User: Fold this.
Amino acid sequence: MFRIGQLAKLADVTPDTIRFYEKQQMMDHDGRTEGGFRLHSESDLQSLKFIRYGRKLGFSLEAIRELLSIRVDPAHHTCQESKSIVEKRLNEEVAQMIAELETMQRSLQHLSDACCGDSHSSVSCSILEALERGESLSS
Assistant:
C-alpha cells in the first residue's frame, strides 16, 4: 500500500493531481492509516498510469472515465466499445486538429513567403501589416 505522496512519486504526478482524479470519481483510495493518510494499492497506481496515458493521448476526462469503466468490468463490455471511443478521438477530434494545423501551416508559409526578409527597417513589413489587418495571405 502507498500513501498519496508515494503514489504521486511513482506516477510522476502531484498529490493534488491524485485528489483531482478522486474528486472526478476516476480513482479511489483503499482506506486510510490510523493517522488519516490515504492508502493506495498497486491497482490504483495502474489506474493512475492509465489515466495519465489517456490524457497524453488527448482523451477527455469523460472518455477516460468510460474506458476505465470498461477496464474495471471487462466481462460486461466489448472491445467495440473501447474501439469506438478511440475512433471518435482519431477520426473526429484529431482529424480536425490536423486540418487546423495544416491551415495554420499554409497561412504562416504565405506570411513568410510574402516577406523579403531583408535587414532593412520593418516600417513596411508585409507580415506585420497582414497581422495588423487580421488577414491571412493564404487563398
